[in-house]
Amino acid sequence: MDTPEDYQLIQKICECVSNAYLDIKLADILDTLQYSPELLAINSMYKRNEGLESD
Known about the structure:
Blueprint lengths: L3 H13 L9 H10 L20
């Protein structure tokens, strides 16, 4: 998590996954984002890996 919006996105995903113990699997996250793509807009304003250099 780099921004408050990243935290907000994680909170929303956790709310969508109905698991009392929050034993969230990658498949749960991907399913949530597939059925609620609007969640991706929460932190879409940031360019990711902007400092990453590639050879």
